[in-house]
TrEMBL record:
Domain named Far11/STRP N-terminal: residues: 26-333
Taxonomy of the source species: Eukaryota, Metazoa, Ecdysozoa, Arthropoda, Hexapoda
Region Disordered, residue ranges: 293-317, 329-394
One GO location term (cellular component): cytosol
Name of the featured protein: Uncharacterized protein
Family (UniProt): Belongs to the STRIP family.
Compositional bias segments (type: Polar residues): 364-388
One BP annotation, GO: cytoskeleton organization
Annotated source species: Nyssomyia neivai
Residue stretches making up the Far11/STRP C-terminal domain: 443-717
Length: 717
């Protein structure tokens, strides 16, 4: 124990020295990765700041309806019978042929779903009323009615033709669609929040909602309808579609239908049990939560050099480009025509790796003080929560003390076969193909090694599914596939299969357009149609607000697209490996790998710490109570967030997508090398978050052997 304490003290000295020398290190980020952000944060991200004037139109529609019903304009004062009667009357108006009458009733329902904010005094009151109103609206059948309204509005050729003739599509072209999508999103998000809540009051409502989402409405499920909207938008036939709201609704509906992290974990163990495999005991996300972020420590020799500056040697650099040219393997498969054209640019200065730059391995929590429960961070500054509301931040992660390796070692059958072949060739002089049992002639240590390898052999669910498919292909008559279980993932796959390639290309096009590194091009799709006002701002304050709104809009789109892609990949991989491979193949064909690298080829520290938000403009703060005048001072009221939740969430999602695409795929790993990802990934390591660094280090590890001896010498001391 004395040695470990000394080592911990030495690490603290190194970290302290490093902070003194650089002064620009990122403090630890107290971020917990989850399916979504807080409920109120997710609701607030639905609305753009330029939509603020439309809130008053919802109240006006409600007051006019109450006046026509000869009732006071106060929802709280009405009895349950009166509320039910009003909703039924509004549903009758939604069926009328006159569009103005339909949309006035729709705005009234939107006001109810928003929690009747004009009648409350606090955020908590608004949230409580929104919850009760949404449950009432759903039980009365409003969700299905609005899905039919959405179908009607999608097929509105007049609106589409007007938008296509315009030079610049603005917020005014998607007014009706945004009202309909907002109602659907609020209902979905409130019911989704009930799944993670502790109360079982609406348990049956939640189950009914899950079933309804997977049942066809107008011959197609809602997920397919939204994906068709996305493909039409990207093809240019419907430029007025509000993509942010469509993507957010698609994400939340997919999350409710398929399930989040806990559902994935349970499903994987269930599928493994049916295949005769033991359950999984390790969870990367759980282990990642307990990992401390790493930072580049100073070597003892560097510390001596710093104390004797006159004896410092001349600074040497090694150019990564020169090394890559020597070590890269050419592959003709990478020369295929790209469907989405992009260049991953590596600045000259960034591609030069300093000799002293390297990263230490994961600090095992076993070195932490178990008695005091301290985290062992010493004087490290934590990016903790501030005085903002709880829903703006994830709780600070607690490091668990682990008395073993973070993961159980996994050995594939292929690894054992290779080990036996090498051992037999070395000690006997010949190999025994397909013989995995005979150890005759091999020394005792080899016997022990084989025994240890077999004890840790891991058979994946994918291997079993592939084995079953091969057996069916060999014996199609005697081997039956059996009845296919219609799980949510199976229903989704069968529904999107005919248009899956187009859907993947459309999602990646939107992701490319929303990436911070994308350049404005005249031929690219316009994802700003639902954020730009009809008239451009004329004051500095209005221009600043619009600039923040545009950046916030892009960040939310990246968050939604990355979450959708990851969710589909995870569920399809568990449902059947061939479904996962089919989707992965089309993502790779559409250049998903260079797109993700292009995304990270930016000032990632600035992206993670961006403050593209105006708290007083977020819903419901923008409509409850007295509103301060918007100026440079009021814009930062409550804006003390040390990091952007959605941006870290997006980064981790994109890294996990990349991991899914390249894992055990040699040609795709080579794409990382060809696109010079090493310096990009190393810059990403500056973000001090354990889970994010874990995935980055995975990518560096799998391509290390292709980067050449000099690169390893420089970066792996």
């Amino acid at each position: 124990m004395g040695n470990s304490d000394d080592m911990l003290s030495m690490n603290n000295i190194y970290e302290h020295d490093l902070h003194d020398n650089t002064g620009n290190d990122c403090p630890d980020i107290a971020f917990i990765y989850d399916d979504t952000d807080g409920h109120m944060a997710e609701i607030a991200e639905l609305y753009s700041y330029t939509e603020h004037p439309e809130f008053s139109r919802n109240v006006k529609a409600f007051e006019d309806q109450m006046e026509s019903f000869n009732l006071p304009p106060s929802w709280q004062k009405l009895t349950d019978e009166q509320k039910n009667s009003i909703i039924l009357k509004l549903m009758d108006q939604l069926d009328m042929s006159t569009k103005s009458v339909r949309m006035k009733a729709a705005r009234c329902i939107l006001y109810l779903a928003q929690g009747c904010w004009a009648e409350v005094q606090s955020d908590s009151e608004q949230q409580h009323m929104a919850r009760s109103n949404v449950m009432l609206l759903y039980e009365m059948g409003i969700f299905t009615v609005f899905v039919e309204l959405l179908s009607l509005e999608i097929e509105n050729a007049t609106t589409a033709n007007v938008a296509m003739r315009k030079v610049a599509v603005s917020l005014a072209d998607s007014v009706d669609l945004r009202v309909i999508l907002s109602v659907l999103y609020i209902i979905t998000e409130v019911i989704r929040n009930e799944i993670t809540g502790e109360l079982d009051e609406y348990k049956q409502v939640v189950e009914n909602f899950k079933q309804e989402l997977l049942n066809p409405i107008d011959d197609e499920i809602l997920i397919v309808k939204l994906l068709v909207m996305i493909t039409r938008f990207c093809s240019g036939s419907a430029p007025h579609f509000p993509m942010k709201k469509v993507l957010l609704l698609l994400w939340k509906i997919s999350l409710v239908s398929l399930g989040g992290m806990e559902t994935l974990k349970k499903s994987k163990n269930d599928y493994r049990g049916k295949a005769g495999l033991p359950p999984m005991t390790d969870d990367t996300l759980e282990v990642g939560k307990s990992m401390r972020a790493s930072s580049p420590p100073a070597l003892a020799s560097d510390m001596i050099d710093n104390q004797n500056p006159k004896r410092n040697r001349p600074f040497r650099r090694v150019r990564t480009n020169d090394l890559l040219q020597e070590s890269l393997m050419k592959q003709s498969s990478l020369d295929e025509q790209e469907q989405i054209n992009m260049d991953v640019e590596t600045p000259q200065s960034e591609s030069e790796e300093e000799i002293s730059e390297y990263y230490r391995t994961y600090d095992d929590p076993t070195t932490l003080n178990a008695e005091t429960g301290t985290t062992g961070n010493g004087s490290d500054t934590k990016m903790g929560n501030s005085s903002k509301p709880d829903w703006m931040f994830s709780p600070e992660p607690q490091l668990r003390i682990i008395s073993r390796l973070p993961w159980t070692p996994k050995v594939r059958q292929k690894d054992i076969d290779m080990f036996l072949d090498v051992s037999r060739t070395k000690f006997i002089g010949y190999t025994l193909p397909d013989d995995r049992e005979s150890l005759a002639g091999l020394p005792h240590p080899i016997h022990e090694s084989v025994k240890t390898l077999k004890n840790h052999m891991y058979i994946s669910l994918a291997d079993m599914q592939i084995k079953k498919e091969e057996e069916i292909a060999r014996n199609p008559v005697s081997t039956s596939e059996g009845e296919i279980e219609m799980t949510p993932a199976e229903i989704l796959y069968q529904a999107i299969l005919p248009n899956l390639p187009q859907c993947m290309i459309a999602l990646l096009k939107i992701l490319l357009a929303a990436a911070p590194t994308s350049k404005a091009k005249t031929e690219s799709i316009n994802i700003m149609a639902d954020v730009l006002p009809e008239t451009m701002p004329i004051t500095v304050t209005q221009s600043t607000k619009l600039g923040i709104d545009v950046n916030r809009h892009k960040e939310i789109i990246v968050k939604a697209v990355s979450a959708i892609l990851l969710l589909y990949l995870k569920h399809l991989k568990i449902n059947h490996i061939y479904q996962f491979e089919f989707m992965s193949q089309h993502l790779v064909f559409a250049n998903c790998i260079p797109l993700v690298l292009k995304f990270f080829n930016q000032d990632i520290m600035g992206y993670v710490g961006s403050k593209n938000t105006i708290p007083i403009m977020d819903f419901p703060a923008c409509v409850i109570g007295e509103q301060p005048e918007l100026n440079s001072d009021s814009m930062v009221i409550g804006d003390s967030a040390p990091y952007s939740w959605r941006n870290i969430f997006s980064c981790i999602n994109l890294l996990r997508i990349l991991n899914k695409l390249i894992k055990w795929k040699h040609s795709r790993i080579m794409m990382l090398v060809v696109f010079k990802s090493a310096p990009i990934l190393k810059r990403t390591l500056k973000v001090r978050h354990g889970l994010m660094q874990l995935y980055v280090l995975k990518f560096l590890k799998i391509q290390t052997k292709y980067l050449g001896r000099q690169w390893r010498k420089v970066n792996m001391k």
